[in-house]
Design brief:
protease, 8 helices, D-alanyl-D-alanine dipeptidase, Muramoyl-pentapeptide Carboxypeptidase, domain 2, binds zinc ion, 5-stranded mixed sheet, about 250 residues, binds the ligand C[C@@H](N)C(=O)N[C@H](C)C(=O)O, Zn_M74/Hedgehog-like, alpha+beta
Amino acid sequence: MNFLSQTIAAKPEPDWAALLALPIAESHDPLVPLGLVNSPLRSYPAYFHQGVPNALSECYVRRCVLFRLYKAARLLPSGIELVVLDGWRPLLVQQYLFDSLFAAMNAHYANDSESELLNRTRRFIAPPSNEPTAPSPHLTGGSVDVALCDVEGLFLDMGTEFDDISPWSYSAAFEAVEKPSAREAEVIENRRLLHSVMIQAGFTNLPSEWWHFDYGNQSWAWSSKSSEAQLGAIELQPLRQRWRRQVAL
Ligand SMILES: C[C@@H](N)C(=O)N[C@H](C)C(=O)O
Ligand SMILES: [Zn+2]
């Protein structure tokens, strides 16, 4: 069996209520910036480059997540690199993403109830929350959005763009194609490669997004059948706040 080309099984959506009820025993692992990472790991803060308000010019993740990203990247065949597109997210960015997609859903599915619109939206964007017991996954620094690129920095074809909201973004979507074309066969291999290295490094995947993986947070605990999460919501400490704390010691 090729451990870098494991088929991706179609999985049901998580039971959100049960997932958000899982306890969090915070590990206090720090947030670390990815600006200085080395090949075969790269960082490209996609929302900053897209001009999303309040998006950070640097990707941040918990340190335990960075170690696992390196593990995943080093499992890749030579010439292919792992690109982090987003990690820790401020609440304002989560709110902006959620509101933007919810508004688009509302405009298109005008007859849907509020809860139907919420379900449609949350397949691709988690509701914004910095509630200590039920934070949005990216607010924990345990979620990452990732892709693959070649040594020239060109993204490999994953079948859809990052953040595409079509059914083809489901991680296992192309596995169901009966007679894949040459391009579809390439997409299947690229997705399997990304999925295989991330799973082997300890991450879990959100079934509706080929790019979204979790470690240590409630989404990870739910998917890995762990009894508790280790990563809750965390804030970046601005210098002014750090100085105020230090001066008071
Ligand atoms: C917005 C998208 N890149 C993403 O991360 N979606 C998941 C569901 C999230 O918002 O946690
Ligand atoms: Zn994500």
